[in-house]
Amino acid sequence: MTFKQTPQPAPVPPAAGDRRRWFALAIVMTAAFMDLVDVTIVNIAIPSIQRDEGASFSQIQWITAGYALAFAAGLITGGRLGDIHGRKRVFLVGIGGFTLASALCGLAANPEMLVASRILQGGMAALMVPQVLSIVHATFPAHERGKVFGLFGAIVGLGAVSGPLLGALLTEWNLFGLEWRPIFLINLPVGIAGLVLGSRFITESKAPRALRLDLVGVALVTLGLLMLIYPLTRGEELGWPLWGYLSMAGSLVVLAVLVAYERRKSARDGSPLVELSLFRVKSFAAGIAVQTVFGVALGVFFLVWTLYMQFGLGWSPLRAGLTGVPFSIAVSTAAGISVQTLVPRFGRKVLQTGALVMAAGVLLYMVESGRYGLAITSWQMALPLVVMGLGMGLIVAPLTDAVLSQVPREHAGAASGLINTVQQMGNALGLGLVSVVFFGTMSDRLTPDRIGPAYVDAFQNALGWVAAVMAVIFLLMFALPRRPAQHVEGGPAEDSAQEQEPALV
User: Fold this and answer.
1) For residue 481, what is the enclosing H or E element?
2) What's the burial of 263, exposed, middle or buried (CB within 10 Å: 0-12/13-18/19+)?
3) Which residue has the higher pLDDT, 77 or 154?
4) Distance between CA 346 and CA 359 in Å, rounded?
5) Which of 419, 310, 432 is nearest to 66 (CA)?
6) Which of 414, 429, 14 is nearest to 229 (CA)?
7) Which of 43, 106, 205, 347 could disulfide-link 483, Cβ–Cβ 3.0 to 4.6 Å?
């Protein structure tokens, strides 16, 4: 049996001429929106949960970090399961499980049950979310993907707008005396609708050749991520014990073993969990590095921002949610125009400009926070938040497009899983670092009159770290391709797919 290259027309994605693909896009985007809203809703409701349930700050961290950890640990597996068993099938299992886990979160009787339910919710999201980008990648032709990823960036911004506002309103209204619980229960009608409509409109797709789930790879990647992130999350609370440092060092050994094992497995049967050949695609490898570090910045900022406004300044959830509206509108606006208008003309410079603009917004926020202290108002925060939002919007949509643009379609699920994994891993790392850059700067024994100033100082310290991380992202972006891949049929993604799927003679 030999392989040969044969001239072929560019393959047409499933349902390329079918209007139903736009219904499918709406359904998977709704699922992505639900996941994004769920994260931001929880952030804004954290003080209410802490007061109502008597949760410790460690448990509060775990309500967010537990979700991110389960999400990160399961994403690669979720993407590969979609490649093997069908992206539609795994998506439906994920959205059904996510809906069930949301119900358990809303019915949680104590902080421990809430943390456990959030971990389950993160695991189900790990099945659902990788299928979103891979269904888009497998369903839409290359020349339409720029438009689709632009919509995806706008959805990110809309989720960022809706989450804090919706969370604030639901918490303030205290519907039926349920306090914060409706922030989770609201997922039930959305999830059920997505399950019913998805089964009808999404076209099934999977890898063109038979693959098997790499169970050893699943165990290694999960163990490695847990050994790295768990000590970071618990370290400050436990006084940074020796086992934590040993665990983090050991995680690097486990991940090195994973790489060696995956290389052998790829050579043996061509069915690894982590498709290492993807890292030979320069745009993918560089984008993965940027996604990881960007996740760290976001993980730090959003949690400390919520704690600063509600615990430090004593604002209500509604006031905190409304304060974030300019930021979210700016993200949505910039994301919507970056892929379609700016990146085709200016290429990599758009993303680098976004990193610098976001860093400038962070520094401006530091200045405003220090200048006005506890007397700062929402409108005084508006300018730095708009600047930050514009910078973030210039990054989120074109970065996803750049990472996936040259990935062979047969590896769309694995690539999507890796993209989401590294971003969530970075996010979980950022949440873990909150113990260091925020709580680590405050005294354990604060008198009531010192709580506000201590939170302001800790917030400024955390913003300094975020600005430094954005500078690192700017430098990493020099490794991205100067110009975007051309979104036409037979372009890089399609050519790569043909090279990966040679004719058998």
Assistant:
1) none
2) middle
3) 77
4) 20
5) 432
6) 429
7) 347
Angle at 210 between CA 121 and CA 285, to 5 degrees: 65
Nearest to 159 by CA among 391, 328, 335, 337: 328
Coil, strand or helix: which one is 470? helix
At residue 495, does pLDDT exceed 60? no
Token pair 């996604």: residue: 291
d(CA 154, CA 162): 12
CB neighbours of residue 505 within 10 Å = 8
Sign of CA dihedral 26, 165, 377, 363: negative
d(CA 71, CA 123): 5
Residue 412 has pLDDT above 70, yes or no: no
Quote the pLDDT of residue 253: 96
pLDDT digits (tens, 9 = 90+) for 64-74: 878 877 887 78
Residues near 210 by Cβ (< 8 Å), separated by ≥ 6? none
Cα separations in angstroms, 383 against 128, 360, 364, 365, 379: 36, 11, 8, 8, 8
Q: Could you tell me the pLDDT band of residue 479, with boundaries at 50, 70 and 90?
A: confident
Q: What is the mean pLDDT of the chain?
A: 80
Q: Using CA atoms, how far apart are residues 62 and 335, in angstroms rounded to an integer?
A: 30
Residue 5 has pLDDT above 60, yes or no: no
User: Can you read off the two tokens belonging to residue 415?
Assistant: 């690539």
Average pLDDT over residues 170-176: 81
Instruction: Kindly state the DSSP code that residue 4 receives in the 8-state scheme.
Output: E
* Residue type, position 353, single letter: T
Rounded Cα distance between 462 and 302, Å, is: 11
- Half-sphere exposure of residue 366: CA atoms within 13 angstroms, side-chain side: 17
Distance of CA 368 to the CA centre of its chain: 28
pLDDT at 446 over 80: no
- Cβ-count burial 313-332 (b if 16+ within 10 Å, e if not): bebebbbbbbbbbbbbbbbb
DSSP 483-496: SPPP-STTSHHHHH
For residue 440, give the 3-state DSSP assignment. helix
